[in-house]
Amino acid sequence: WDMEGLEKHLPGQVKAYIANHNIKFYTIDGIKIGKEIGLGGRINTVLQSAFFKLANIIPEEHAIELMKAAAKATYGRKGDKIVQMNYDAIDAGAKQVVEVQVPESWKDCADEGLFMAHAEGGRQDVVDFVNNIQAKVNAQEGNTLPVSAFKDYVDGTTPSGSSAFEKRGIAVDIPVWQPENCIQCNRCAYVCPHAVIRPVALTEEEAAAAPEGLKTLPMTGMPQYKFAMTVSAYDCTGCGSCANVCPGKKGAKALAMENMEANAGEQKYFDYGVTLPVKEDVIAKFKETTVKGSQFKQPLLEFSGACAGCGETPYAKLITQLFGDRMYIANATGCSSIWGNSSPSTPYTVNAKGQGPAWSNSLFEDNAEFGYGMLLAQTAIRDGLKAKVEDLVANGNNEDVKAAGQEWLDTFACGATNGTATDKLVAALEACGCDKAKEILVQKDFLAKKSQWVFGGDGWAYDIGFGGVDHVLASGKDINVMVFDTEVYSNTGGQASKATPTGAIAQFAAGGKEVKKKDMASIAMSYGYVYVAQIAMGADYNQTVKAIAEAEAYPGPSLIIAYAPCINHGIKKGMSKAQTEEELAVKCGYWHLFRFNPAADNKFTLDSKLPSGDYQEFLDGEVRYNSLKRSNPAKAERLFALNEEQAKDRYAYLNKLVNLYGKDE
């Protein structure tokens, strides 16, 4: 910020503290420098240089020499170009730091306190939580909270949807919709890690009542509606995944990454869009199990603290769009528990009916068992309710209750249809008002068939929690396990797991992993009654949503292993290209797409085409592999060749399964 920006954005308490304590105050436009040099948002080297210039711990010239030597040692494995960029960043950081002449007027600024978001409207439980706890914790005043502030949360529960009130405004650039180039495919919303870009279907009346300036198009295939793509400017992280996957028209993108502050007004269009009712006829037209149709459903995971470009959250968000209104989640400790519920912010939210994922985290090692316990508990409750409904149907006198009860019993095990039947049954029971009806209504929230999910990373599923995963899958029960496979322990900084492939460098495998990746999918398939799929969203959008829908519909255990690019991979193109990296991984044969459905005629479907990409070029595009090539070329050549050979063997094995599990006669 310049002086005008500082006056506008700095709270009075901060201004007064700086002025009254004679603090020397400096600024530097690190983002601008990073962009000019080619480092993008990576400005740590710029700021480090500015610090040593100002701190006067050692002479500036000597500090610059030492920093450049450190940059050479740290980034040398990434190539001379990266090293030179860091040299330039060091020079710029020392030269472009600017001292702010603190005005006398700052001494008299009102001690207004740090800015705290104030929530109002909406659900009272989340509003109270945000105002009484979350805002203070986020302002780093959590230590001032009395014990009594937590009396409503003594059991550890917190209201869903509190992340929507944070509006952090951390993006430098955000996507701005260019409707003239849009084909209304909804891919941008599909891949967004933070659910900040969403399509909206508007009636003529809703479009007329929208904030001035909202851009719309006639909706393709449904001319009675207007189509708009809206962006939550203050929740966006600026990763650029949306713009990168946008096909646009004739080479022109429908999304342009532009300065956030200049386009902050986009927020009002997003805020208006989320107030509009979901158009069920639009979802029915385009089908919720398609890329386009799924994105007209409300995401019930939004505005998490996941990394910009995260490879995990797009999968979880999609699952909540498909099943979130009737979903239980047991979450292993790891990245997915951190972005899933970092106190005091909860990104899992609810729909207009107050329905959303019920989420909980136990430990790292027992998550599968924890989720299994959730399933057994709800099964026991529903079995008890089933007996009571059967009694009413067989012996009751109310014909409406009997009809609704029979429909509920007929759909008892079908999650897709039992929800509607439950609504009818509840309405009939409430109208009836008899003692037996009241007894059932006490537990009405348990009537509908729930979708039980178990979330976690590869460190949990392949390693520490594998025994539990195996136990749960072997049970034969209707439970869904989702593994976000980053091929390392992501949350703890990138340690090797059994999912780490041959030749990859990670902590505890600093010289490149010598042994191949564990074949988790084949272990699960060996049971014969477990639904198993491997997916990679950026490689095949349709296969991803199809596999998730099939897994949930399968009346038994399911395992989905999802390829999830991570900052620990060191993708040279950057995390904005995470979806592209998934596509390249499948194209070259590094990752394979398939579905094993025990209930289908053709039990095994190999969705990957014959690999055609350059395998070694793919490995070279990630620092986790490339760094071994630079530090030990001979070893890298041996291990990378072995990695490729193992991938080819794996594809050949999967091809054999196509014939082995041919159509049942």
From TrEMBL:
<dbReference type="InterPro" id="IPR050722">
    <property type="entry name" value="Pyruvate:ferred/Flavod_OxRd"/>
</dbReference>
<protein>
    <submittedName>
        <fullName>4Fe-4S dicluster domain-containing protein</fullName>
    </submittedName>
</protein>
<dbReference type="InterPro" id="IPR011766">
    <property type="entry name" value="TPP_enzyme_TPP-bd"/>
</dbReference>
<dbReference type="InterPro" id="IPR017896">
    <property type="entry name" value="4Fe4S_Fe-S-bd"/>
</dbReference>
<dbReference type="Pfam" id="PF10371">
    <property type="entry name" value="EKR"/>
</dbReference>
<dbReference type="Pfam" id="PF12838">
    <property type="entry name" value="Fer4_7"/>
</dbReference>
<dbReference type="InterPro" id="IPR019752">
    <property type="entry name" value="Pyrv/ketoisovalerate_OxRed_cat"/>
</dbReference>
<dbReference type="Pfam" id="PF02775">
    <property type="entry name" value="TPP_enzyme_C"/>
</dbReference>
<feature type="domain" description="4Fe-4S ferredoxin-type">
    <location>
        <begin position="173"/>
        <end position="202"/>
    </location>
</feature>
<dbReference type="InterPro" id="IPR017900">
    <property type="entry name" value="4Fe4S_Fe_S_CS"/>
</dbReference>
<dbReference type="GO" id="GO:0030976">
    <property type="term" value="F:thiamine pyrophosphate binding"/>
</dbReference>
<dbReference type="GO" id="GO:0051536">
    <property type="term" value="F:iron-sulfur cluster binding"/>
</dbReference>
<feature type="domain" description="4Fe-4S ferredoxin-type">
    <location>
        <begin position="227"/>
        <end position="258"/>
    </location>
</feature>
<keyword id="KW-0479">Metal-binding</keyword>
<dbReference type="GO" id="GO:0046872">
    <property type="term" value="F:metal ion binding"/>
</dbReference>
<keyword id="KW-0411">Iron-sulfur</keyword>
<dbReference type="GO" id="GO:0016903">
    <property type="term" value="F:oxidoreductase activity, acting on the aldehyde or oxo group of donors"/>
</dbReference>
<keyword id="KW-0408">Iron</keyword>
<dbReference type="InterPro" id="IPR029061">
    <property type="entry name" value="THDP-binding"/>
</dbReference>
<dbReference type="Pfam" id="PF01558">
    <property type="entry name" value="POR"/>
</dbReference>
<dbReference type="InterPro" id="IPR019456">
    <property type="entry name" value="Pyrv-flavodox_OxRtase_EKR"/>
</dbReference>
<dbReference type="InterPro" id="IPR037112">
    <property type="entry name" value="Pyrv-flavodox_OxR_EKR_sf"/>
</dbReference>
<keyword id="KW-0560">Oxidoreductase</keyword>
<dbReference type="InterPro" id="IPR002869">
    <property type="entry name" value="Pyrv_flavodox_OxRed_cen"/>
</dbReference>
<dbReference type="GO" id="GO:0006979">
    <property type="term" value="P:response to oxidative stress"/>
</dbReference>
